Structure formats: C-alpha cells, structure tokens
Design the sequence.
C-alpha cells in the first residue's frame, strides 16, 4: 500500500508527469489555435511526427540539436501550411485532410528515413538537447527535482503556453482569431482577413506540434523512431477539447493524463497482484471518469469545421 | 541455378535494430557466403502474413520461404498445407507440417543468463554506475508468453546469483514507443534499479537512452546493441536469429532440410550473450552458469508466476 | 458543342459523375506526385506502378486480394460515416472492432456443435452486440454528462484493446506460446467466395450492410431522426426527437457495424482472436468515411480504393525494392486531394475544361 | 453630388439573376430606402456595394469617383458601414470586443480594453445608443444587438451607413429609438441606406425610395410624392390588400388553458412567473411584449423544449406539462417557432424531408418506421401548391429558399397537421407584404374553424389585426390583458414598457 501511495504522491511522479505532458501540451495548444480559428485539426499527429523527424535530420546534418529544433518548427509549419492550403483554400473537409496528413506524414518520414539512413525503424543517434538545471531552482529541495534539470524544451513549453494564452485572450490578434472561429463572416465584415488569420493559426499549430515532436526526438530521446508520435497527437486533440480550447486548460488536461500515465508506469513495477492490462488502463479510465464527472460543457468555436467564402 | 530464398518479416518491420534486423543479417550473410538471392516482405498486419506467404509460394520460384515471428504460425500452417512441395522455415514458433522446419528458442535460458549478470553487477558498488541498492529491472514490450519466458528466466537468474536482489519488471504495452519505454525505465531507476534489460523492440531503445542519461547499465536484446551506448551497454541477451536464418538456408540448399521442431538454446548456440562491458569475474561466473544450463542442471521457470 | 455540354451536365447530375471524376483526377494526381518521389529515390516509377496496378487488378487472385483488403474498411468506414451523419465523431472504432472480434471468436469457439448456418450469424451478431454496447457507452456519456465523444472514444480505444487482451489471457487463451483463442471450428469459417483466394462471403455481408444502412438513411424514420440530429440539433428537439436517445442509438449502430469488421476478420481471415491483429483499421476507417462523403456507397468506393492500394503495394514490395511506405505517402495524398475538390478543379482548369468545372460548382 | 452611385449592377448566382442591371443613386445626407419583396435582390445589391460579393457587371461611384470595392476592408476604408440583415455578431464575445475587432486600440502588445470600453461608451452616449460595453452578446436583447451593430459602423467612422432590414426584429419602441438615431445620424451629415419592406416605416423616415422587384430596379420615388398603396403595387407587381378583415366571433368553450406556469431560464436571467391564461376555441390570443420578457420561455415551456418548474398546460382536459415534445405534437399542438432557421427547419434537408419534420414516425408518412415516399411527396406537393411556396419542388434544399418561402414551409407544415392548438411565434418575422397577407389569412381561417391560437408577436399591427384578446408580458409576468379592439398602439407600447399597468 505504501508503495502505491509513494507511486502516486511523489516528486518523481510529478516530474515524470511534466516530461510526458510536454509534447502533448504543445500540440494541444497547436490544436487550440487551429480550432479557435475554425479549422479542426486531426493532423496534429502528423505534425508531431514530422517535427520529430525533421529535428533529428537537422541535428544529424549540422550536429547541433538547436538547429534540429529549428528544423522541427520549420517543417512542422510547412506541413501545417500544406494542411492550411488544403483546408482553407481548397476547402477540403478538415477531418479528411487531417487524416490524410497523418497518413502522409507517417509514410513520408519512414520513407525519408530509408533514403537518408537506410533503415525504416530508427535513425542513428544524434546530438540531443542536454538538460539544463536552473541556477536558483536547483537549490530548492522540491523544485529542483520537479522542474529544474529538465530538457530546455520543457521550460520553453511553459513559456509558450503562457504566451499562447496571452496571445489568444489579451491581444488584438487573439481577438481576431477567436472571432474568426466563431463567425468568420462577422470578422470579414469588420475588414479582418479571415483566411490570413486561419493560415496564421494553422501554421502556428504546426510550429507548436513540430516543437512537440522535437521534444520527443531531441529533447527526450536523441533519435527518430518510426511512428514515434504513437498517438500523442490524438491525445493532444483530446486535451485541447478537454481544456476548453484554452492553452492553460490544454496543459491541465495534458497534466491529468500524463500524471495518471506516470502512476500507471510506476504501479506496474511494484508487482501488485493486478493484471498488467488493468493497470495500463488507468490513465484512460481516469480521463473518462474526470471528464464525465467534471460536467464540463464543451462548447467548440461556433464555426469550427466550416469553410468560409465560397461564393463571392 | 542459384538458390532463391524468400523471407516474410514480423510486423515490426526492418529497422528494429534487433529481431527483424538480425534475421536480415542472416539473409545477407547467406547471400554472401552461399550465393543465394532473396526477396523479402514486411507486412504491416497479422492478416497480411498469409497474403505474402501465399504470393511467394504461388510463384514456385523459391527454394525456401522463411517466416519470422511467432504470430506467423497460423498463416504458415495454412499456406504450408496448400503448397506441400514448397519448403518453409519459421523462427520462433512451431508449425506442425511435414514441409516446415520450425526453429524455437529456450528463451528462459537467455533470460537466466541476463538475470545472473544483472544480479552480479548490482552488488559491485565500487563501479560508479552502481548504487548500493540491490535492485535490477527488466522491461518487456508487451505481456506475451515469449517475453514472459525471458522475464521469468531473468528473475530466476537474478535470484540464483543473489537471493537478496530485488527484480522489478514491467511492460511498455507497445513495441514501438521508445519515449514510453524511456519513461518506464526512469521510474525503475528512481526506484533504485541500476541494471535494466530492455526486451521491448523499438521501445527498448528508450531503455538504452534512459540508461545512458542516468548513468546506469542497460542490457540489450536479440542483437548486439552495444554501439548504441558503448559505455552503458553491459551485455546483450543474444538471440542468434541471424545464425538461425543462415542455418535454415544452409541446411535447405545442402539437402539437409530439417522439418519438425528444432529447439535452439544456449547449448545449440542459438542463444548467448556478449561480453561487452562485463567484468572478467562476471564473465567467468556466466560461463559456469552456461555450462550448467548446457548440462541441464538448472531448472529454469517459463512463467513469471513460477519465478517469483 | 453546346449539346455535348448539356449532355455532359445531365450525365453528371444523373450519376454524381462529377464527384467520381474529381476523385479520379485526385488519384491520378497523387500517383503522379508519388511517381516523382519514386523517381527521386532512384527507382523506376513505371515499374512500380505496373506492379501496383497488376497487384491490385492483374488477375482474379489479385482482384480478390483488393476486395479482401477492403472488407474491414467497408465496415469501419461505414461505422464512422454513421456517426458523422448524426453529428458524432466516433474515433473509437478500433476499440469497438476489438470487442467485435473478441466476442465473435469466443462465441464461435464456445459453440462448436452448431452448424455454420447458425453459428456464423450468431457469432457475428454477438460481436456486433458487444461492439454496439462499447459504442453506446460514449454515446450515453455524451447524452448524460455532455462528455465529448472525441475524447471518450479515443480513451475507450485503449481500454477496449486492453480489456479484450485481459479477458483473452485470463479466460479464453488457447494453450501455447501465442496469446490467442483456440481456432474456431471449421464450419464457423465464412466460406470462400472465390476458391483459393481467401476472399470470403464477408464481402457480400459488407455489401449487405452498406445497402442496409443506405436504406436506413433514406427510407426509415429512425434514419431520418439520426440525420436530423446531425444536421440541426435544435430543430430535432423542436420536432420532438429525443436527441440523447438518438445519440446513444447512433453510437450503438456505429459500434455494431465497427464490430463486424472485427468479426468478419476473425471468421474469414484469422480464424481466431489474436492480440494486436488490427493495423489501425479504425483510423483508416475515418479516412474511408470522409473520402466516401459519409455516404454508404461512397464508403464502398473508398474502401475498394484503399484495398487496391494495399493489395498493389504487396506486389510492388515483392517485385521491386521500392519501399511500401511510398504507397502510404500516395494514400495520404489521395485522401488530401480527394478531400479538396476545388484543388482538382483549379488544376484541371489549367487544361481548359476547368472553367466550366469551376462554374458548375 | 451623389454619395453613392451604382450603375448597371448585375450579380448572378448559379441560375439566379439576383441583380439585373440595377442603378441606384443615393444623395449625400439623405435617408434612402430600398424597398422590395423577399428575394428582390436588396441584400445582394448592398453586399456588392460593401465588397462582400464580386459583381458580375456594373460600376460603383462614391462621391463621383469610380471605386473598385472587392473586400469589406476596402469598403470600410472608403467610409462605408453596413448593418447586416443577419447580425454579424459573435455571441460569446463582449459588446466591446464585437465593436472594436479589426480596429482595436492597443497598449503595447495587448488590446487596450479600458480605452476600448471607454470609446464604446462615448460613442453610445454621443448617438444615444445605450448598451453595456461589457455585456456578452448572447446575454443582451435583439434591440441591444442592433445598437451594437450600428456602433460597429460608427466606430469605424462610416460616412455611408447601410441598414439591411434593421427593424424586422425590433419592438415599436425600439423602432422609434432607431429612427431617432437615424435622424441624428442624418443630421450629423451621414448618408443612410435603409432596407425594408415595411411601408409604414418607409413613409415615416425616408427621403427617397428605390423599389426593386425580381432583381430589377422598378423606379425611384420621392417619399413625399408617393403613398403606401402605390409602393405596395410597385413592389409586388399587383394590387395588394394591406390589412386583412377579421370576422366577428362569439364566446365559446375554452380550448387551451395555462395555470400557474413557471419557467426559469437561468442563462438569460429571465423567469416566466405564474402565468395564467385561457384561449377559447376560435380565439386568437395575442402575446405582446418587448423581446426578452419571457416570450421565448413561454413558447418553449409550452412545447416541452425547456423544463418548467411548475404549472399546468391543459389542452382540453389533458395536462401536457409533463409530456415530451413529441407527445404534445401528437396530441395536436402545431408550433410555428420564433427562430425559423434554428428551430423550424433543417436547412440541409430537402423540402419534402422538412415537411415531415415532427411527423416522421406518424402515418401516413411512416409505416412502422418505414417512410412512405409517395405519401410524403404527395403531401409536399399539396402544401407547395396550397401555400404558394416558390423556389422549387419537393426536392430542393430549403437552404436555397428565400426567407419568406422558408416561413411558408413551416406554416404550411404546421397548419396542415389538423391541429387542436396553434402556437405561432413571430409568424411573419422578416416576411414581405405579399406573404404576410397570406399568412394572416391562413391564421384567421384556422381561427374561424374553431381552433385556439396563441400568437406571440413583436409586431403590434399584427397583434392588433389578428388577436381577439392580447396579454402583455413584462419581465416574465402578465401585466395586462386587453381587448384587441379597444387598445391602441400607444397604450400597448406603454404596457409593454411596464410603465402603465393601470390601463387595463
Ligand atoms: N422521438 C423519437 N425519437 C426517436 N425514436 C422514436 C421517437 N418516437 C418514436 N420512436 C421510435 O419509434 C418506435 C415506435 O414509437 P411510436 O412513438 O411511434 O409508438 P406509438 O405506438 O405511437 O407510441 P405512443 O402511442 O406512446 O406515442 C419506438 O420504439 C422508437 O424506437
Ligand atoms: N449567396 C447566395 N447564393 C445563391 N443565391 C443567392 C445568394 N444570395 C442571394 N441569393 C439569391 O438571390 C436572390 C436575391 O436575394 P437577396 O438576399 O438579395 O434578396 P432580398 O431582397 O434581400 O430578400 P429578403 O427580403 O428576403 O432579405 C434570391 O433569389 C436569393 O435566393
Ligand atoms: Mg426581407
Ligand atoms: Mg435581404
């Protein structure tokens, strides 16, 4: 019993939560921006994967993991730009285009892995980002373990989430994004360039997801592995909805999920007499229970998934 | 004429740096040494095994068709029945057909060796990578019997070497998520484990990565994964799939095709370990254990329940 | 000239031909991009496509493989489409499919005395029931607590897969090293439609379900209610339709159809339930559904297209050393392009005909 | 000098010629009315001017200079502001956010909320447009929303203001208010283009009138030199009866009775409190009130679309109050909902499918759950014929019908249900004269057949011509019950404002 409690209430578990939540929270915020502007984003998974791959490729060819991160952001944005082009300009159904993007990204990264490195499983090891310990925090007993000595992308994630929240709710651009997702025609009649807002938001979602991918491949491991996003894009989508299309909410939802995942992983090695499959279910069941119990009324942006500007 | 060989890999596909890749090496070696030609297929779903086997068999061009992986057994049973004149081989499973040579391993023996090595290491506190706690770990990809056999052997081996050693084991739940494998490893390291075996396909790469980062020992699986972490890869639980594949090809083209079950254990050279970073004293003890295994003196459990 | 155009318009209207033409354009275009990639990677694109095409349609056997591979996608695509028609995004197909496969297998191995005529339907229906219940659950949560189905169904995928694995291991595992049920009795296997191709009557079941759902949508009061809820929830309430009830019902039907994908694989292909058998049929189902415009007949076409690419990929992989991943890339492109008819219109306008195509939107 | 000069504007949608070579000249500083039936092309013409639609032909001049407006942002820059027929407001944003978006005051990187609110407050004082800058759009009345729309244009310093049917959703007092504001705007030198099809309003406020019919310009008249009868004739192309005659009626049995009805609406902070009334067979009971005083709660509470707290709803002697909506319909309640697009129709469905909305499980359209195509089509064709629904047959999607015809679809469907009670909420909102006449006639016919009718309307004229008695809702309570013959518009207006409760 003590072991179980220790698995749940420990700094290590919380630190693991932060580590595991980082890519999901980043992509979830990407989803938030995209969907706040009215574009459903199932393509987060593919964007994470692309970012993870580009990050490793960048680091591989330049030796610098930070160049890798830049690559991840740029290529994440690039696939997002393609996605934006299809959903905004060519009026593709958002869900299909997202699914298409995911399949495309999976195929492309695997193929490129073969072209570049001759195998379709994993890339060679590359230089990853080393963890940084923060001068002050590393002296404080609890915080040192909790948030100091993490990958730099973890800190960047925190800064970005707060920045994203600020952008969305405190700035003119944020207002325009929200308005576009709620009622593009209202935005249009106010002289706001609806498609430009949408392009911006979707591309931003790609940049953020790409960064999430870079965290996986460079900030966390230091290699790329086929399909290494492993469903995190879908988790991010769920976190975004759970978090009420708010970056902070998305972070909270990512925390909830990653926390229960961290607990799950720890409970496994305690050798409780509980079937392994049942322990592995914990994060998913908890998410459902909290969601059903929280009585959160999910109210998506009014014009989510719609196209704007058909007839002129 | 030249011999042609076809091979159907397990669903993980090439590039796993372990199981499938080892099989692939066997093929390459056969191409080089035996001058054969080969075709390979990488199915993405269990339902596709039969398609590929059937396609290969229906061409009637191949001297031998090799199935890699336990989950091909049923597909192969069917296809082998349909093509009684075609020779097949399967690695990691038994198919009861007169035209199939089955090669299986006594996985628990390998686990046992790794367990012994891990237990011996975790008490060597003079090694900077070893902590005072007597804890070791093993991480499986999924909870399947084959993996459990390894884990059972591992636990038994560790306790054989030192009954006080604490062994924790857990499963990633997928073969393809290194990030989760890493997180699982970290949780074990936080718990005091300093030697951890990753038998988890590509998820196992996360085990190695975590070991490197936290300066503890990792143990590799199937192939020699030492190059992934030269300073942290204690040893590798070798499964010489490459040798097995080569053997099967060699036997077939030299007229020694061996239908039925071929069990490959430590004694047959199908399983083993690499010396890698193992200290000499440990290697010595491992060699002794190995002899005992070969001599059949050890009773090694196959189920985790029996090992605990 | 004018008459020709009239005739053309009329034909298009008659058969929804224009959409078909757009889709064909999209496929060709995606293949073209794929060809460029193949060329760039130093391979012969013509060679690749020769095998891709013959592998999908070259002979009866290959054609049968195309159809065979489309069967699970017919069910999963249809399941997603049913949800969409009622405004529900069921991403939980994968979990529902596992329940279907598991239950079907368990029933089939538990009742070995029955004849195939009875056993096959019973086993499939039991699977559908299990999948239906698994689908109804998120529907119920949505109706009762407002829990968003996208989240709950994603989570329930994992739970469903783990739960069936748990039950399998603890209660139904066949002896031996593999986590699987015993093999189903011979008479429970769905008979082959074309001998020695592995293509079974499951395809006919698929067509049957397609027709059934089509009929449901266009000719029944329930289908009407379902679509009304999807199209305008407020108006559905106004009409006295019980939205919670339709939500649960839709998810049930969707889950049941998804489960048939698992059931038919068990009875038609694998002949047992085995862990991890699905390479993501549920997720591909999303693509198939929306590619097929959420219409039953569209789902059939899209599933066949995917089946063809998959079957063709087998040949291409066997006879060339071009990696199958390139076909995955092409699949992604096809979905993207088919999803975006106006892209194709823009593109075809380069060839002159376009103005007219654009105008006809 | 003409503020706006449009020459030969042509706009084609698919097979519809929405504007066919339309000319329009609007003088600087005048209030110019564009008058026309539903679908005449009024909105289209203005959308072209505002850059929302690309025109297929014609030229536009502002203050004598040719301009090429292709985007709203260009129009805004040129000093054009447009208040759209369907409000272009975002429910979930605040009044201020809706007004300043696209031209936000900034402080550093942030949106300067304080300055923005201050500015909104100043503008609203300057023009007498009272709104709470911090309120959310979804929590304010339609009249307030209208004011927000006008403030949006003023915030962008529009010199030419287009108001597309701004009065359709306003109460008389609100209309008066609006007209006052419009006059003030005119006095401050702005040019106004005012779209309506209400003749009375046209006569009251405008300087000149341009009439459109079927996408063509019929003519322009000086308001002072014309009269409603002529205008109606030009709009419709034939003579119209502007007000229907109602036959006298005798006392009869009570057909519908509501006792102690309480319907809470926590979202909008409106509570319908202790409402009692009776409607006799063959009587039309009008419900008057300023929007947001409980009408929606009454309508939805009676239909089971909103949970009630307590009370009885008696149709004959059957209490409906605990029955699901479907059951109430089955028992013979016909319902014309106030929000036709949101509630009454499924825009993506075909006409024939909309005709069976609510009776899709009932004979003869459905036989044990299987739809009977033939019966449905026959029925649809009958209604199309009887109610003169124009715009296509049974298979067109109702989305493509004009507003008036959409309303006829609902009315046709509900009145042919063989009802025992009709609840008609805003039955003629946004519908043109020709159609209003028709709908009024239909309702009176039903009354004469002895059916009790509850008529909830914001149009005082409508209430007074159709109703036998009128009850007035104010803040969720019935504050008066008056004989329709004996009350004049001024009195009603005061009652609705809650000011003069002793008039009863
Ligand atoms: N509002 C509705 N929403 C969904 N399904 C409905 C609805 N109304 C009826 N059904 C379906 O139709 C079936 C028959 O119901 P129906 O209400 O037509 O029966 P009924 O005999 O007329 O009942 P009652 O006389 O109690 O109204 C029900 O089992 C139900 O599945
Ligand atoms: N975006 C559009 N697409 C297709 N047809 C349109 C569109 N907008 C308007 N129309 C059609 O053009 C014609 C004129 O419509 P418009 O909205 O300008 O009429 P209106 O005079 O404003 O009518 P109302 O009084 O009902 O608002 C109608 O037949 C309408 O159906
Ligand atoms: Mg109108
Ligand atoms: Mg209009």
Sequence:
């Amino acid at each position: 019993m003590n072991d179980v409690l220790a698995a749940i209430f420990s700094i290590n578990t919380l630190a693991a939560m932060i580590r595991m939540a980082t890519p999901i929270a980043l992509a979830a915020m990407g989803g938030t921006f995209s969907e706040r502007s009215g574009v459903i984003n199932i393509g987060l998974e593919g964007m994470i994967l692309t970012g993870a791959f580009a990050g490793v490729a960048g680091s591989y060819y330049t030796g610098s993991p930070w160049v890798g991160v830049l690559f991840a952001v740029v290529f994440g944005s690039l696939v997002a730009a393609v996605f934006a082009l299809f959903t905004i300009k060519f009026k593709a159904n958002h869900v299909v285009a997202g699914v298409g993007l995911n399949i495309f990204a999976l195929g492309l990264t695997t193929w490129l892995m073969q072209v570049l490195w001759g195998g379709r499983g994993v890339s060679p090891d590359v230089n990853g980002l080393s963890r940084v310990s923060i001068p002050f925090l590393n002296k404080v007993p609890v915080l040192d373990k909790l948030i100091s000595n993490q990958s730099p992308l973890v800190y960047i994630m925190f800064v970005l989430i707060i920045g994203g929240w600020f952008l969305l709710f405190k700035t003119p651009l944020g207002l325009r994004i929200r308005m576009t997702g709620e009622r593009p025609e209202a935005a249009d009649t106010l002289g706001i360039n609806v498609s430009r807002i949408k392009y911006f938001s979707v591309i931003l979602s790609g940049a953020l997801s790409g960064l999430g991918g870079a965290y996986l491949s460079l900030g966390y491991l230091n290699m790329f592995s086929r399909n290494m996003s492993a469903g995190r894009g879908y988790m991010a989508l769920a976190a975004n909805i759970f978090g009420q299309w708010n970056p902070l909410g998305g972070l909270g939802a990512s925390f909830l999920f990653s926390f229960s995942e961290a607990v799950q992983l720890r409970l496994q090695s305690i050798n409780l007499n509980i079937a392994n499959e049942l322990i592995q279910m914990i994060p998913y069941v908890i998410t459902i229970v909290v969601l059903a119990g929280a009585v959160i009324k999910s109210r998506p942006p009014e014009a989510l998934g719609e196209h704007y500007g058909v007839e002129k | 004429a030249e011999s042609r060989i076809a091979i159907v890999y397990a669903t993980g596909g090439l590039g796993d740096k372990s199981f499938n890749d080892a099989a692939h090496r066997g093929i390459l070696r056969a191409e080089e040494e035996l001058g054969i030609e080969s075709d390979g297929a990488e199915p993405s779903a269990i339902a596709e095994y039969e398609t590929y086997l059937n396609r290969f068999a229906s061409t009637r061009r191949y001297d031998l068709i090799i199935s890699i992986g336990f989950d091909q057994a049923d597909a192969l049973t069917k296809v082998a029945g349909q093509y009684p004149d075609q020779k097949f081989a399967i690695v990691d499973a038994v198919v009861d057909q007169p035209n199939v040579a089955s090669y299986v391993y006594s996985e628990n023996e390998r686990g046992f060796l790794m367990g012994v090595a891990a237990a011996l290491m975790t008490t060597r506190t003079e090694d900077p990578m070893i902590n005072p706690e007597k804890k070791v770990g093993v991480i499986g990809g999924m909870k399947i019997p084959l993996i459990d056999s390894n884990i059972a052997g591992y636990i038994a081996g560790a306790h054989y070497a030192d009954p006080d050693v604490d062994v924790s084991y857990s499963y990633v739940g997928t073969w393809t998520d290194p990030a989760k494998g890493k997180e699982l490893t970290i949780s074990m390291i936080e718990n005091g484990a300093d030697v951890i075996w990753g038998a988890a396909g590509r998820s196992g790469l996360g085990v190695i990565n975590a070991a490197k980062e936290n300066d503890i020992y990792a143990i590799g699986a199937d192939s020699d994964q030492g190059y992934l972490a030269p300073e942290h890869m204690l040893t590798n639980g070798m499964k010489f799939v490459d040798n097995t594949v080569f053997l099967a090809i060699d036997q077939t083209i030299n007229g020694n095709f061996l239908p039925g079950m071929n069990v490959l254990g430590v004694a047959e050279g199908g399983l083993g370990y690499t010396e890698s970073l193992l200290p000499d004293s440990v290697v010595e003890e491992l060699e002794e254990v190995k002899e005992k295994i070969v001599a059949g003196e050890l009773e090694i459990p196959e189920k985790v329940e029996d090992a605990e | 000239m004018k008459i020709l155009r009239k005739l053309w318009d009329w034909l298009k209207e008659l058969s929804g031909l224009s959409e078909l033409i757009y889709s064909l354009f999209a496929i060709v275009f995606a293949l073209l991009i794929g060809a460029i990639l193949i060329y760039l990677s130093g391979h012969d694109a013509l060679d690749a496509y020769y095998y891709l095409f013959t592998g999908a349609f070259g002979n009866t056997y290959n054609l049968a493989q195309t159809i065979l591979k489309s069967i699970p996608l017919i069910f999963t695509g249809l399941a997603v489409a049913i949800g969409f028609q009622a405004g529900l995004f069921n991403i939980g197909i994968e979990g529902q499919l596992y329940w279907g496969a598991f239950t079907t297998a368990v029933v089939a191995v538990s009742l070995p005395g029955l004849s195939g005529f009875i056993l096959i339907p019973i086993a499939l229906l039991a699977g559908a029931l299990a999948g239906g219940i698994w689908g109804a659950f998120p529907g119920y949560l949505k109706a009762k607590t407002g829990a968003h189905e996208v989240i709950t169904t994603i989570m329930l995928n994992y739970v469903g897969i783990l739960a069936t694995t748990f039950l399998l291991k603890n209660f139904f595992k066949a002896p031996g090293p593999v986590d699987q049920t015993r093999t189903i009795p011979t008479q429970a296997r769905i008979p082959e439609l074309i001998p020695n191709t592995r293509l079974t009557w499951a395809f006919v079941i698929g067509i049957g379900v397609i027709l059934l759902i089509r009929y449901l949508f266009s000719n029944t009061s329930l289908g009407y209610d379902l679509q009304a809820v999807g199209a305008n929830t407020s108006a559905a309430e106004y009409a006295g339709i019980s939205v919670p009830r339709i939500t649960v019902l839709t998810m049930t039907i969707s889950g049941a159809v998804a489960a048939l994908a698992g059931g038919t694989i068990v009875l038609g292909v694998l002949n047992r339930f085995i862990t991890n058998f699905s390479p993501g049929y549920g997720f591909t189902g999303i693509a198939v559904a929306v590619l097929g415009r959420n219409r039953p007949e569209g789902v059939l076409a899209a599933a066949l297209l995917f089946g063809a690419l998959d079957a063709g990929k087998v040949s291409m992989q066997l006879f060339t050393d071009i990696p199958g991943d390139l076909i995955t890339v092409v699949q992604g492109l096809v979905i993207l392009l088919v999803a975006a008819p106006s892209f194709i219109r823009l593109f075809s306008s380069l060839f002159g005909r376009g103005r007219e195509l654009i105008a006809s939107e | 000098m003409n503020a706006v000069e449009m020459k030969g504007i042509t706009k084609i949608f698919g097979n519809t010629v929405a504007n066919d070579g339309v000319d329009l000249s609007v003088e600087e500083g005048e209030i110019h009315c564009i008058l026309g039936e539903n679908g005449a092309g009024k909105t289209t013409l203005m959308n072209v001017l505002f850059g929302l639609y690309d025109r297929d032909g014609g030229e536009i001049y502002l203050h004598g200079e040719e301009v090429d407006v292709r985007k709203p942002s260009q129009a805004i820059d040129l000093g054009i502001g447009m208040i759209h027929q369907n409000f272009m407001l975002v429910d979930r944003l605040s009044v201020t956010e809706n007004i300043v978006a696209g031209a936000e005051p900034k402080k550093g990187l942030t949106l300067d909320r304080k300055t923005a609110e201050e500015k909104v407050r100043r503008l609203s004082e300057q023009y007498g447009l009272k709104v709470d800058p911090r309120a959310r759009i979804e929590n304010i009345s339609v009249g307030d929303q209208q004011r927000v729309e006008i403030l949006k244009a003023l915030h962008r310093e529009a010199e030419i203001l287009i108001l597309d049917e701004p009065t359709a959703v306003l109460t008389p007092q609100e209309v008066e208010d609006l007209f006052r504001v419009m006059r003030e705007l005119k006095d401050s030198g702005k040019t106004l283009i005012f779209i309506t099809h209400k003749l009375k309003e046209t006569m009251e406020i405008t300087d000149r009138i341009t009439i459109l019919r079927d996408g063509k310009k019929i003519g322009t008249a000086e308001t002072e030199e014309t009269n409603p009868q002529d205008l109606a004739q030009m709009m419709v192309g034939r003579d119209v009866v502007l007000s229907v005659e109602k036959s006298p009626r005798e006392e009869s049995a009570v057909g519908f009775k509501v006792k102690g009805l309480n319907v809470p609406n926590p979202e909008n902070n409106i509570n319908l409190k202790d409402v009692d009334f009776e409607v006799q067979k063959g009587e039309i009971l009008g419900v008057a009130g300023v929007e947001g005083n409980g009408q929606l709660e009454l309508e939805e509470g009676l239909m089971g679309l909103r949970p009630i707290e307590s009370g009885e709803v008696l149709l004959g002697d059957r209490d409906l109050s605990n029955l699901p909506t479907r059951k109430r319909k089955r028992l013979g309640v016909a319902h014309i909902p106030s929000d036709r697009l949101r509630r009454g129709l499924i825009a993506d469905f075909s006409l024939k499918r909309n005709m069976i909305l609510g009776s899709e499980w009932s004979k003869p359209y459905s036989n044990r759950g299987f739809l009977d195509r033939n019966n449905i089509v026959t029925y649809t064709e009958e209604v199309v014929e009887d109610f003169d629904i124009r715009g296509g047959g049974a298979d067109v999607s109702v989305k493509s019908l004009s507003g008036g015809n959409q309303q006829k679809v609902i009315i046709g469907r509900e009145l042919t249900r063989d009802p025992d009670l009709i609840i008609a909420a805003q039955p003629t909102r946004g519908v043109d004269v020709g159609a209003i006449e028709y709908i009024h006639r239909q309702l009176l016919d039903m009354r004469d057949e002895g059916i009790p009718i509850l008529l909830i309307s914001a149009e005082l004229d409508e209430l007074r011509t159709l109703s036998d008695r009128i009850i007035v809702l104010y803040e969720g309570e019935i504050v008066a019950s008056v004989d329709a013959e004996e009350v004049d518009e001024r009195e009603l207006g005061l009652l609705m404002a809650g000011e003069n409760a002793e008039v009863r």
About this structure: Chain B touches chain C at residues 11, 39, 41-42, 44-48, 50-52, 54-56, 58, 70-71, 73-74, 82, 93, 142-146, 149, 173 (CB under 8 Å). Residues A 311; D 13, 16, 18, 36, 38-44, 85, 402-403 surround adenosine-5'-triphosphate (ligand 2) (CB under 6 Å). The mean pLDDT of chain B is 91. The first strand of chain B starts at residue 4 and ends at 8.
